[in-house]
């Protein structure tokens, strides 16, 4: 936001705020299970079974995007090298301390919460993909090209799994019995916007088609009613202490 505000208004205050954030991202990378360039979260996330110290493909991807913009503005301050370090966890499977999960069907997911079982959170996968895409365009590194291609192709194949028929799913985890909570209105709108951006980035019209279908769900009373019913069921299961991660089966293994 600070970078965008500076770009629109040339606000010195916004520039200072952006630079401070970029400096923090450059200077506070830590090692996680032997993998450099990480931003561990020092709190647990019980819903996904994540203990304190978990890392996120989404956070790494967003950090890459910030650091690359900082490098454009301050090219001698080490931001590009920091962006490359932030990409290191994408070289590793989450079982080995990284943020990538690979399924037996050959899918490649970038995990917003890099723990097992992987949740395959949709918006987190896309945010991570954006950061990798930006870095690959600058470096032309083959391993980044492979990740961007595989992540985009996985999304093309697996988007139907995120479609309930009336709303989008936030992730691909399910409670025992198969119940899956749909996304909140905010995240459903995120999904639509993200898919439109991906369609423009990748030239893939399937992303645009799904975005159009999901946007249409928002204008349908029946879809909204089903979404409310789903949300109530999810709240009930949480109140009963049934955790989506601890007692889950993944739709994609």
Concise overview:
By secondary structure, the chain is mainly alpha-helical. 53% of the residues lie in helices and 8% in strands. The longest helix has 19 residues, at 221-239.
Which descriptors apply to this entry?
two-stranded antiparallel sheet, 253 residues, 6 strands, mainly alpha
Proportion of residues in β-strands: 5-15%
Shape: globular
- Biggest sheet details: 2 strands, antiparallel
Calculate the mean pLDDT score and round it: 91
Percent range for helical residues? 40-55%
Q: Taking Cα atoms only, what radius of gyration do you get, to the nearest Å?
A: 19 Å
The CA-CA distance between the termini, in Å, is 37 Å
Assign the structural class, choosing from mainly alpha, mainly beta, alpha/beta, alpha+beta, or little secondary structure: mainly alpha
The tally of beta strands, per DSSP, is 6
Number of helices: 9
Uncertain segments are none
Order of helices and strands: HHEEHHEEHHEHHHE
Output the strand order for the largest sheet: 1-2
């Amino acid at each position: 936001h600070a970078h965008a505000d500076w770009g629109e208004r040339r606000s010195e205050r916004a520039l200072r705020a952006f630079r401070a954030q970029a400096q923090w991202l450059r200077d506070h990378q830590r090692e996680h299970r032997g993998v450099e360039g990480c931003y561990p979260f020092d709190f647990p996330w019980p819903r996904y079974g994540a203990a304190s110290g978990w890392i996120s493909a989404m956070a790494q991807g967003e950090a890459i995007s910030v650091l690359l913009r900082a490098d454009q503005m301050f090219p001698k301050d080490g931001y590009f090298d920091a962006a490359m370090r932030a990409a290191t966890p994408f070289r590793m499977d989450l079982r080995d301390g990284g943020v990538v999960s690979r399924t037996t069907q050959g899918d490649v997911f970038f995990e917003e919460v890099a723990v097992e079982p992987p949740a395959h959170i949709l918006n987190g996968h896309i945010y991570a993909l954006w950061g990798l895409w930006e870095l690959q365009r600058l470096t032309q590194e083959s391993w980044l090209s492979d990740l961007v291609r595989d992540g985009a192709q996985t999304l093309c194949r697996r988007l139907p799994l995120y479609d309930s028929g009336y709303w989008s799913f936030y992730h691909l985890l399910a409670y025992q019995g198969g119940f899956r909570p749909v996304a909140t209105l905010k995240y459903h709108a995120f999904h639509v916007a993200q898919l439109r951006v991906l369609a423009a980035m990748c030239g893939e019209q399937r992303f645009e088609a799904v975005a159009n279908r999901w946007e249409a769900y928002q204008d349908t009373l029946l879809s909204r009613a089903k979404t409310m019913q789903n949300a109530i069921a999810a709240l009930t299961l949480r109140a009963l202490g049934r955790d989506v991660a601890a007692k889950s089966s993944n739709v994609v293994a």
